[in-house]
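Quick question, first post here. What does this chain look like in 3D?
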Amino acid sequence: MPFLSLPSSLAPRRVHIQGPPNTGKTHSFLGWTRPAFYVGLPGEKGSATLPSGLPDLTAFRWESNPAEKTSSQAVLTAVEGLVFPILAGKQGVCVSLMLDGIHKYYGHVLNHVTGGAHFRGEQFEAKEYARAHERFNFFLDQVLSSPIEYVVTTSWDGREADKPELQSASPTHIFPDLPGKMAKRIMGEYPIVLYSSIKHDANGKVESASWQLKPAGNVWGAAVKAPAEVVARLPVSIPQDFNILAKALQGAWEGKK
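> Answer (accepted):
Ran it through. Tokens below.
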């Protein structure tokens, strides 16, 4: 693929959203520009929050027969067989693409390279993580370097040790829920990583749904790639809304708070 000039738009073209389950990660995709494609990766359950029959939104979710064993290799092949044609425009016009649950996809990658040991709960050599990282990055590179205007991926959150050598005594902070070094490395793959959270009132109703844009508190897995003075003008958190995110980024680059 040839090199392309940088787009003049400051819109959030590549975004990873991480956070606990049931915090609006999938549902927020309804705010992205359409025509849009949603792919619930194998094992991901977030598609239940998407209304059916929406115009210009094509949604795919994984379904398997529990009586039939499906190898992780077959799962990876099926995912690539769906996603790569979308990237190439063979499924129709796609302006926005969400891959929901990339931590579940990574699980199949790790299970494949370990010959099934990962899902069986068996020990395997640490070097297998490096092989899994390479396989996972190959897929991610294809997605993020595609010509599709907007790509959104999601994952759960997880605790990462600040000083792994201290083991259980190490302080921890929240990053995307991916094994080994990938939890922190993935932060470098996206220009924007958001942390998703929801607050409920005393009756259990959703009071607010927000995205954290930069590190604060226990959450270190939130960041925007930009000069320090631009990041300083961004709010720590905003409502879960694509248009609000785009305006916040535009304003920060233009010198507005």
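Residues 127-144 form the longest helix (18 residues).
The first strand starts at residue 14 and ends at 18.
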